[in-house]
Automatic annotation (TrEMBL):
It is found in: Cell outer membrane. GO terms for biological process: siderophore transmembrane transport. It comes from the Bacteria. Residues 243-720 form the TonB-dependent receptor-like beta-barrel domain. It comes from Xanthomonas euvesicatoria. It is a multi-pass membrane protein. Belongs to the TonB-dependent receptor family. Its main location: membrane. This is Outer membrane receptor protein involved in Fe transport. GO terms for molecular function: siderophore uptake transmembrane transporter activity. Keywords: Cell outer membrane, Membrane, Receptor, TonB box, Transmembrane, Transmembrane beta strand, Transport. Pfam families: Plug (PF07715), TonB_dep_Rec_b-barrel (PF00593). Residues 39-151 form the TonB-dependent receptor plug domain. One of its GO terms (cellular component) is cell outer membrane.
């Protein structure tokens, strides 16, 4: 919980409805207790109202961010609409445990990232209640620890801001059905109430990829002459299936061979890949205005969550059998591979599959207090926050059998066996001070500092050793920021800033940080020696041009340098790995945005360039590959170029729109060095082969017909030309040649690494109705 998160909420909640490229018009709406507005912020700020979600222009919040916000990208690694892996300036906000997170998500001032692994549960956000979205860039320390690349700040509606009954119902491809509804009421004496719900159900466009979720949000409060308070409750449940990557090409000694992706990109590699999520968040907020220049804000929250997963995978012993016995057997039953130690008669007794399950239980509580005041030319804020979280994470495995459709069923003769786990806790104390100093009417200097004290405690458990002694790690850091804005007479504002923030290691990273006790990611936790916290420093220069309400543009140049970044490295003499600090990584680029309105027409354009590279030497472990890091090597999965264009025409009750997104190719994970396989000891690397994803461009169409002031209809077609594309690539072993399980006991198997792809969503249709009564 931080002041700036709360401040951004206030800005976004009271700003006019704007699109993703608009400047945030809040000159007449200062942050409570201050005279700061968004035009004085020394970095590029993007904002959108709930109209962007409610007008049928996006599938959900993460889709809105990808379509409308400059610098935001995403991939479909999980294949589920609510389990996206988003990046902003190369930093991630992901639902995947083990992913290195760098973007914070705030809901009404409460940090929504989970205590365990800092993951973001996009499926648990109350989208029917969200009134505004604001994206803040950089490593601003006022957003608290772990905010290395930026923050997504969400505010919810109330009975004061959204009275009456509102709703939206839609149906679409893949048997998709969705309902959003809300009702708000406000009394003459200041009392207000609000309730919102979302229901979602689909079969999905890929095989065995159905999903459903539901969220309920309620808020009650009272607005007084000097004091406002509100109490809100959020509860959500989901059952989502995301079936991940598909093998596209296998690289064998005989040459490349097509994989499952080529035959049927709607298929799945193995199944199930099920995630059940449940979350409850209770928060209370209090604002008291002592006078026109001084205000106090207090916030307290409690959050509970549980997440259970079931993953059908290839059995580890069987995968090793396929690799070591690929040449098959002679007629007398003897193995043709010297490394093969499995007799042909024993091969059919090996379990071909495994059901890996996880259980995660989390509890978090926190309080925040900040005082804001206007003192002459200074807008001052001081405050403190305290957050604590507890988590219990357990991993189990059960032997099973791969079926002809590549699903995995459990062997009834075996039991689920505990594999590893962790009981962890975190306590974070933060104290901050910020000042915006008006040097004159056109020049503002902003400065801030936040001191964090983070305590992480872990008790690791393994099947062999049971509970290990508790480990305790303490991280303390003071992080500053400094910025300057200057408004010129030509409707141009120039700005520049430098900011620093830090991230303490997560329980997963600490639980697999010993090179002498490596693990497989993310299925094992072995030992937890100390890791250093990541330090990120961001520099940004830019300009805003706003000659009128119908024309505006923004240009921003930034660089973010990470020190002691945490990567998954290869352990000596093994194919296992461990987390460790490396020297540096760098994310630098350019963001540009333009928005024009003229009569019935509206045009928008946004472009981002990102150069993300490693800046140190090392050995990165990615699947079975070991990549030799060197300064200048590109980081995988991040496109260099991202272009977003939009055009809208409105005449009377009819609105038509078209959107285009063009994304350049991505480096494949495990192919950063241009190799698809590890060179044998003493041999030179093979000829370079880059197997990343190809660039693509997608076009979307939308239409809206306003029947009357209360009812409107909308329709949308995504990926109009049904473009085949992929959003992620990785190198891994494919044990399903031609879609069939490899069986060396029957015939020799052509083994080799394969390129796996995350298939992009094909053409999709959606129609719906929206009402406001």
């Amino acid at each position: 919980m931080t002041l700036l998160a709360r401040s951004a909420l206030a800005v976004a909640a009271e700003a006019p409805q704007v699109t993703w490229l608009d400047r945030i018009e809040v000159t007449a709406t200062p942050i409570p207790g201050t005279t700061i507005d968004a035009a004085q912020l020394p970095y590029m700020v993007q904002s959108a109202s709930n109209a962007e979600l409610s007008r049928g222009r996006s599938n959900n919040l993460s889709d809105l961010l990808q379509r409308r916000f400059v610098g935001v990208d995403g991939n479909d690694v999980q294949g589920s609409a609510f389990q996206n892996d988003l990046t902003f300036h190369g930093f991630r906000a992901s639902a995947l445990p083990g992913a290195s997170q760098g973007v914070s998500v705030y809901l009404d001032g409460v940090r929504f990232n989970e205590p365990f692994a800092d993951i973001v549960s996009w499926d648990m956000l109350p989208e029917a209640a969200i009134s505004a979205v604001t994206l803040m860039p950089g490593s601003n320390p006022l957003f608290g620890p772990n905010t290395l690349g930026g923050a997504v700040v969400l505010s919810t509606a109330s009975g004061l801001t959204a009275p009456g009954l509102q709703g939206e119902a839609s149906i679409g491809s893949g048997a998709r059905k969705r309902l959003d509804a809300s009702y708000g009421i406000a009394g003459a004496d200041g009392w207000h109430g609000f309730v919102a719900l979302t229901g979602f159900d689909e079969n999905g466009w890929r095989a065995a990829s159905e999903g459903r979720l539901g969220t309920v949000f309620g808020k009650v409060g009272k607005q007084g002459e000097h004091t406002d308070w509100s109490l809100s409750l959020l509860h959500g449940r989901s059952r989502l299936i995301g079936n991940g990557l598909l093998p596209d090409t296998r690289y064998t000694d005989e040459g490349p061979e097509p994989g499952l992706y080529r035959a049927d990109r709607r298929s799945v590699y193995t199944s199930p890949d099920l995630t059940r999520n449940r979350n409850t968040l209770l928060s209370v907020q209090l604002d008291h205005r002592f006078d026109a220049d001084t205000a106090l804000h207090a916030l307290a929250y409690s959050k509970m969550g549980r997440r259970d997963t079931v993953n059908g995978d290839i059995g580890q012993d069987y995968e090793e059998f396929v690799e070591e016995c690929a040449s098959g057997y002679a007629t007398d039953g003897s193995a043709l591979d010297a490394d093969c130690d499995v007799a042909r008669t024993d091969a059919d007794t090996l379990h071909t599959g495994a059901l890996n399950t996880t259980q995660m239980r989390q509890h978090a509580q926190g309080i925040a207090l900040n005082l804001s005041m206007q003192w002459g030319a200074h807008a001052l804020t001081a405050g403190a926050t305290f957050d604590r979280g507890h988590v219990r994470y357990r991993q189990f495995a059960r032997d099973g059998w791969v079926q002809p459709d590549r699903s995995v069923i459990a062997d009834p003769a075996t039991d689920r066996a505990f594999f590893s786990g962790v009981r962890g806790s975190t306590q974070t104390l933060g104290v901050f001070l910020a000042d915006t100093w008006a040097l004159d009417d056109a020049t503002h200097l902003t400065a801030a500092v936040r001191w964090n004290h983070v305590v992480v405690g872990n008790v690791l458990s393994t099947a062999d050793d049971g509970d290990r002694p508790r480990e305790r790690f303490v991280y303390a850091k003071a992080n500053p920021s400094l910025g300057l804005t200057r408004r010129l007479a030509s409707a141009v504002t120039l700005y520049g800033s430098v900011a620093q923030n830090s991230r303490a290691p997560t329980a997963i990273e600490l639980g697999c940080a010993d090179p002498t006790q490596p693990c497989r990611l993310p299925t094992g936790l072995q030992a937890d020696p100390r890791l250093e916290q990541i330090i990120s420093r961001t520099y940004e220069l830019g300009a805003r041009w706003t000659p009128s309400a119908n024309r505006n543009a923004t240009l921003s140049v930034y660089r973010a340098d990470n020190r002691d970044d945490i990567l998954f490295l290869r352990a000596p003499d093994t194919q296992l790995g461990y987390f460790d600090n490396v020297g540096r990584t760098r994310y630098q680029g350019v963001d540009a945005a333009l928005h024009l309105r003229s009569g019935d027409w509206q045009w928008s354009a946004g472009y981002s360039y990102l150069d993300a590279t490693y800046r140190s030497d090392g050995q990165l472990l990615s699947g079975e590959r070991v990549i030799a890091l060197r300064p200048g090597l590109r980081i995988a999965a991040l496109p260099r170029h991202n272009l977003k264009l939009g055009m809208e025409w409105q005449r009377d009750a009819l609105t038509l729109g078209v959107g285009v997104r063009a994304v350049s190719g991505r480096v494949a994970s495990g192919n950063e060095d241009g190799q698809v396989d590890n060179a044998e000891e003493g041999q030179a690397a093979s000829e370079r082969l880059d197997i990343g994803t190809a660039g693509y461009a997608l076009a979307d169409l939308q239409a809206r017909w306003t029947i009357n002031a209360r009812v409107s209809l909308f329709a949308r077609i995504d990926n109009v030309f049904d473009r085949r594309y992929a959003t992620y690539a990785a190198v891994a072993e494919d044990v399903f040649p031609d879609g069939e399980l490899a069986r060396p006991q029957d015939a020799p198997v052509e083994t080799g690494p394969a390129r796996f792809l995350a298939p992009g969503v094909p053409r999709q249709y959606l129609i719906g109705v929206r009402w406001a009564l």
